[in-house]
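RECORD TYPE: inverse folding
INPUT: structure tokens
STRUCTURE:
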């Protein structure tokens, strides 16, 4: 009887270990996407939907991203965010006001979708989703190895035919979720580094809040 119990326990342990391991193919797909973003400029339209467990109505915003390495420009109707790799400028049109900061890695991960994936990748178990299926997209789950993370899971969809990022869904342990959906994804875009720096000359009378 003890041998049977031991064998069952051993099989269960082996199953748990196998499940908890990263899938090499899924990891490679995410790595290729991040390498593309590091080496070439990307421009894409986006829609961001944020849902709270306590609120049935999701908040939504839309705009465009231009990303080149660790630099990016985020443009929305009421705000533009510029980041040149060190300094970030957040310009609010209705106030004609810009706030200047040097954001932390955590703060950047809340703004730049590639930074979200890059920062989370090494800390996660990466596998193909067993629940979400798509004929067009690779559906990949990134689950934190540490149990004390605020993020419960990141679900990534990457288009099979061209390796483009299709969507990122981030689910927190408190039940809130953010879904970033991308469209008109363009790779190898030619952009000058100057577009990632806020040019005050273009905004007459702008108020500058330097928070560095």
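DESIGNED SEQUENCE:
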């Amino acid at each position: 009887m003890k041998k049977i119990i031991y064998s069952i326990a051993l099989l269960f342990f082996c199953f748990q270990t196998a499940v908890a391991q990263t899938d090499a193919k899924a990891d490679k797909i995410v790595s290729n996407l991040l390498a593309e973003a590091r080496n070439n400029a990307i421009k894409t339209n986006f829609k961001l939907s944020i849902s709270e467990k306590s609120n049935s109505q999701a908040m939504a915003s839309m705009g465009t991203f231009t990303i080149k390495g660790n630099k990016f420009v985020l443009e929305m109707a009421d705000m533009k965010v510029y980041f040149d790799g060190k300094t970030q400028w957040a310009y609010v049109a209705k106030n004609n006001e810009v706030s200047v900061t040097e954001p932390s890695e955590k703060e950047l991960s809340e703004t730049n979708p590639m930074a979200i994936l890059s920062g989370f990748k090494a800390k996660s178990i990466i596998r193909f989703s067993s629940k979400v299926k798509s004929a067009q997209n690779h559906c990949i789950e990134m689950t934190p190895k540490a149990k004390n993370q605020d993020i419960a899971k990141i679900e990534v969809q990457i288009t099979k035919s061209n390796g483009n990022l299709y969507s990122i869904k981030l689910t927190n342990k408190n039940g809130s979720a953010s879904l970033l959906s991308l469209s008109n994804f363009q790779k190898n875009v030619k952009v000058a580094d100057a577009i990632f720096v806020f040019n005050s000359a273009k905004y007459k009378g702008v108020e500058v809040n330097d928070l560095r």
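NOTES: The domain at 23-210 is CATH 2.50.20.10 (outer membrane lipoprotein receptor (LolB), chain A).
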